[in-house]
Amino acid sequence: MLSYISCDMSFRDFVSDIFLQGFAGRDIGTREIIWTLFITFILSLYIFFAYRAVTRKTFYSKNFNMSLCAVALITAGIILTIQSSLVVSLGMVGALSIVRFRTAIKEPMDLAFMFWSISIGIMCGAGMTEIAVLTSLALTVFIMVLEFMPMGKVSLILVINAECSDEVDDEIEGVLKSHTKHYKIKSRNISGGRMDAVYEIRSLDEKGLARGISGIKGVTSCSVMSHDGEVAY
Fold first, then answer.
1. I need a surface site. Which of 61, 157, 187, 224 has the fewest CB within 10 A?
2. Is residue 232 predicted with pLDDT exceeding 70?
3. How many CB atoms sit inside 10 A of residue 161's CB?
4. What Å distances lie between residue 79 and 17, 48, 66, 128, 155, CA to CA?
């Protein structure tokens, strides 16, 4: 009985030692900290210029781009701190769990760059700079290949202001059939004998279409606009 208890206690001590050794903190020198933050800074600058070159939003957000660099450095600092002590890492997880981010990211590419920045901080903080560099290069090639890949033609929006009559409608339909591959009425508003119609069209000759619609008697104005929505195939 005594030998069984002794063996059982030895097994528990053995498991406890393995657990503590696996999660034991390590001493991180100043040189390693500076080198890690420097590599993270260089890669975050790379993300900064990559986001500036790739994004095609109407209004370029420099503050968001700067936040990508800051997030990478902050994440690297957190990973370095977690490696120093198991107790500190548990406390930091509890502290970060109460943080709530309420800023909505509307552009899918912004979300991808944000996750890219966080991943770079984690990799550099964990000492895996080679993986961080290779991942950044692979993502750049991947984005550039998809960026220059030919896509379908984007649909256009045709806005017409004209008299509300069957003759005008028939002439507009005739011009649309001759100058577009596909058209679809999106809205029609009639007020005071006037009509405002909005069409979604796919045309190879936008100038000819606009001239044809404008030449119809009873049409006051005609506008052809593009939009940044989904591509129509």
1. 187
2. no
3. 14
4. 24, 21, 21, 12, 47
pTM (predicted TM-score): 0.61
Contact assessment for residue 76 and residue 37, using Cβ atoms and an 8 Å cutoff: yes
CA-wise closest residue to 75 among 30, 102, 41? 41
SS3 188: strand
Round to whole Å and give the CA distance between 155 and 229: 9
**CATH value of 156-226 in 2.40.128.50, 3.60.21.10, 3.90.580.10, 3.30.70.260:** 3.30.70.260
Structural domain boundaries in the chain: 21-147, 156-226
Q: 91-108 pLDDT, tens per residue? A: 666 556 655 656 666 777
